[in-house]
Amino acid sequence: MTTSEIKAVATEYIINTYGDRGLAFVKGEGPYLWDAEGKKYLDFLGGLAVNGLGHAHPKVVEAIREQAGNILHTSNLYYIQPQAELAKLLIDNSDMDQCFFCNSGAEANEAAIKLARKYTKDSGRTDAYEIITMDNSFHGRTMATITATAQTKYHIGFEPMLEGFKYVPFDDLDATEAVISEKTCAILVEPIQSEGGVNIPSDGYLQGLRELCDKHNLLLMFDEVQTAMGRLGTFFGYQSYGVVPDVITMAKALGSGVPIGAMLAKREVAESFVPGTHAATFGGNFLSSAAAVATIKTIFEENLAVNAVKMGNYLAGGLMELKGKYPIKEVRGKGLLRGLVMDVDAKPLAAKCIENGLVTICTNDYVLRFLPPLNINAAHVEEAVNIVEKSMSEVF
Ligand SMILES: *Cc1c(COP(=O)(O)O)cnc(C)c1O
User: Fold this and answer.
1) Which of 44, 100, 101, 138 is catalytic?
2) Residue 43 near ligand 1, beta carbon < 6 Å
3) Relative to the CA of 195, which ligand 1 atom is closest?
4) Beta bridge pairs of residue 367
5) Are 176 and 168 in contact (CB under 8 A)?
């Protein structure tokens, strides 16, 4: 099918939650994509931070092939070997003790929200259920997670929101302490706000949140849906900041595109979930767990967190060199989560980049966001920077 044929059918039969998507990709290999007309693109969006190993990584393809030919699904009524292996890998590489598997980032955050309420009640604070989240956050699209997401654009039309969330500015410890009360049970925060504009924490902010949680007996929960899996230069984002939370949520890159999410917690907290309190039919099934095991092993075998630091710094440096010539405010981020912050609306620039063969996205109006695969090399970074420069020269 051509792009316009795919678009015609999709527009007729799929509820229009995504607007005009423009392109239809039909093949991917490494950091490259091809559209239905055969045009090649460099993918610096990585399926929204999902394709951490790029497209069609042989080890992931092989794991999926082998698993699909053997057994896909039995439900969580039975033990699942790759799920057990995956859990051990995640726990061996974190400060957490146990995990719960689901299918997406929103579901992982749902699990965290439920666990925070349950744990706090179990510990005797039966009236404490409020969770503090940050302005410009993004935690998902279910009712609980849009409520946790402190951006009114995601609430409009869906009111009433779930009870029990308090919003404060990101990176503001005083504002956070000011809303803590006897009703508060947890703080939920992204170590770096990606969707909200690649907002990075000041030195001491995450540590300050840890201290507030310890002082007031609250759970510190990190939404690492985008920052885990090596993207910031350590396997989990929190390891880059040396601040250990009580609960971690993850999804996006975990299965390299096979849907899977996970919530990890310290043992004492995790033990508030017991048989019957939470479940997901597909959560951590054979296929998604096998894909995740192969993905994680590859991140370690190929030393990709280290590569994310090197390539991230190279990308940031290349983009900074364009600063004097074009309306660039700054380059923000860490590892391979980077934002090119413009002084002007960045949407026309994002559109021009795609036209010129670089897939990227504009977030929060002014920010061109880059979430490339972690296994890119210097030549890929140079190719991307050249396309950004060419696109800037055409737009500005
Ligand atoms: C994408 C994202 C989510 C939601 O994940 P879904 O898989 O779309 O439900 C939650 N939190 C953060 C930080 C994300 O980037």
Assistant:
1) 138
2) no
3) 15
4) 341, 363
5) yes
Looking at ligand 1, which atom is closest to the CA of residue 251? 7
pLDDT tens per residue, range 79-125: 999 999 999 999 999 999 999 999 999 999 999 999 999 999 999 99
Give the tokens for residue 217: 């007996």
Kindly give the residue spans of alpha helices, DSSP state H, lying in 128-275. 143-148, 173-179, 205-216, 238-241, 267-270
* Cβ pair 197, 346 in contact under 8 A: no
Give dist(CA 336, CA 356) in Å, integer. Answer: 21
Task: Please answer whether residues 367 and 330 qualify as being in contact, where contact means their C-beta atoms are separated by less than 8 angstroms.
Answer: no
Buried-state track 171-190, b at ≥16 Cβ within 10 A, e below 16 = bebeebbeebeeebbbbbbb
List the catalytic residue out of 171, 223, 235, 246: 223
Ligand 1 atom at shortest distance from the alpha carbon of 252: 7
- 223 catalytic? Reply is yes
The dihedral region occupied by 284, where left means phi > 0, alpha psi between -120 and 50, and beta the remainder, is left
Pick the catalytic residue: 44, 165, 236, 252? Answer: 252
pTM of the model: 0.98
The count of residues in the chain is 396
Residue 58 preceded by cis peptide, ω within 30? no
Pocket test for ligand 1, best of 113, 138, 151, 238 (most atoms within 8 A of CB): 138
Asked if residue 226 has its Cβ within 6 Å of ligand 1, the reply is yes
> Tokens at residue 363, please?
């977030």
Using a 10 angstrom Cβ sphere, with 0-12 exposed, 13-18 middle and 19 or more buried, the burial of residue 77 is exposed
> CA-to-CA distance for 396 and 394, rounded, in angstroms?
6
| 294 and 62 Cβ atoms separated by less than 8 Å | yes
Query: What is d(CA 286, CA 272) in angstroms, rounded to the nearest whole number?
Result: 26
Structure tokens at 54: 């790029």
Q: Interhelix angle for 378-395 vs 304-320, to 10°?
A: 30
Could you tell me if the CB of 192 is within 6 A of ligand 1?
A: no
Query: Residue 296 in contact with residue 88, Cβ under 8 Å?
Result: no
CB of 231 sitting under 6 A from ligand 1: no
Tens of pLDDT, residue by residue over 224-264, are 999 999 999 999 999 999 999 999 999 999 999 999 999 99
Render pLDDT for 48-63 as a digit per residue (tens, 0 to 9). Answer: 999 999 999 999 999 9
